[in-house]
Design a protein that fits this description.
Layout: E1 12-16, H1 45-57, E2 62-66, H2 76-84, E3 91-96, H3 101-111, E4 116-119, H4 125-132, H5 137-149, E5 155-159, H6 170-179, E6 183-187, H7 195-200, H8 204-215, E7 218-220, E8 231-235, E9 241-245, E10 258-261, E11 266-268, E12 277-278, H9 280-284, H10 289-301
Parallel strand pairs: 1-2, 1-10, 2-3, 3-4, 4-5, 5-6, 6-9
Antiparallel strand pairs: 7-8, 8-9, 10-11, 11-12
Helix pairs in contact: 2-3, 3-5, 6-8
The protein binds S-adenosylmethionine (SAM).
S-adenosylmethionine (SAM) binds at residues 21, 27-28, 66-67, 69, 95-97, 119, 158, 160, 187, 189-190, 192, 197, 321-322, 325-326.
């Protein structure tokens, strides 16, 4: 089993299956897009399956597919059922920007995926376009509503609130969690990739204050077995939930149970540090499973106690979020 030097059990692997995305969110991707990986540098599906199989042997129980945008990778419709067929996985989920969600919901349901996370930072079409640089609000919203109608639950809506950009929508998202069964998750804007992210940062304590002032107390929801770092709440009588994910103002590193796999085959022990352990190289040299196990053990061994990032220091994360997968 994977236990790091600080006695944290690692049982969650986030797998970025592509570096490509059909949006270019201002806080995540440069205006002209990030330089794309060469096709041959991206892990093939059979390589991903082998890595996941090893991870399961080592006690990983939960997998999340991310990107780039997972639905832009060709063949994902065949890959997801193969992943779902692997024995030992308690939980598979997916984070998407929702643009192609509508057309993939039947496949997800047939494969046995029950819940999804959709990133949506504005409920206003013009603002959505300003943030994502594309006019796809209607497609995303249709996907979310169809997922709800098809019984996906929970549907978590990831929202990054940024000063001067969408901070006037906090109450609209709060209202959504009252009137609908959506779980709205406010993720603090991380100072990664762009200087402007630090300027846009708003601590979740402010979001909480705004919500409570308007809608009344946030009632804590007891954490579930597969919960991530969100502090969960609901409003009295509300149909959905509010989740606060505060990596900067209230770091949850002491409970971190994650490893990340990038599309080009690097294991990252921490989202906000620059440590990477190459798993693609041994894989492509035709190594035995034992060597891949060693790579996992090494990645866990170098997992830092806490990420070094705050708004005041100069620590730079070399990768942009679009190439890590959030
Ligand atoms: N394309 C998919 C999506 O949009 O959900 C998956 C990849 S995206 C990088 C995963 C998540 O990372 C999104 O919810 C996005 O909002 C979040 N993210 C990206 N950059 C971020 C930043 N600087 N701070 C906080 N969250 C960020």
């Amino acid at each position: 089993m994977l236990v790091d030097r600080f006695n944290r059990s690692i049982n969650y692997l986030r797998v970025s299956i592509t570096d490509r995305c059909n949006l270019r969110c201002v806080y995540c991707t440069p205006p002209d897009g990030e330089r794309r990986l060469r096709h041959r540098d991206i892990l093939r599906y059979e390589e991903l399956l082998r890595i996941v199989r090893i991870a399961l042997k080592l006690g990983i129980k939960k997998i999340r597919l991310t990107g780039g945008e997972p639905f832009v990778r060709k063949g994902i419709q065949e890959f997801i059922p193969m992943l779902m067929a692997l024995k030992g996985l308690d939980d598979i989920s997916l984070t998407t920007n929702g643009v192609y969600l509508k057309d993939n919901l039947e496949m997800l349901k047939a494969a046995g995926i029950k819940r999804i996370n959709v990133s949506i930072d504005s409920l206003n079409r013009v603002k959505f376009k300003r943030i994502t640089r594309f006019d796809y609000f209607s497609e995303v919203w249709e996907g979310i509503e169809k997922a709800r109608d098809m019984g996906f639950y929970p549907i978590k809506l990831n929202v990054v609130i940024m000063k001067g950009i969408n901070d006037n929508e906090v109450l609209d998202f709060g209202r959504l969690a009252i009137e609908h069964p959506y779980h709205i998750r406010f993720i603090e804007c991380m100072p990664v990739g762009f200087e402007s992210n630090s300027l846009a940062f708003i601590p979740n304590s402010e979001i909480e204050k705004t919500l409570v002032h308007k809608f009344g107390p946030l009632i804590p929801v007891s954490p579930g077995q597969n919960d991530g770092p969100a502090e969960r709440y609901r409003f009295d009588g509300g149909k959905g939930e509010i989740g606060l994910i505060s990596p900067i103002s209230n770091s949850f590193c002491q409970h971190c149970n994650r490893l990340r796999l990038t599309a080009n085959g690097m294991l990252l022990p921490c989202l906000l540090s620059n440590i990477e352990v190459d798993i693609k190289d041994p894989l492509r040299r035709g190594c035995l499973d034992e060597e891949l196990i060693e790579v996992f053990l090494k990645a866990v061994d170098v997992k830092p106690k806490c990420h070094p990032l705050n708004l005041d220091n100069n620590q730079k994360v070399h990768r942009k979020m679009c190439s890590i997968g959030g």
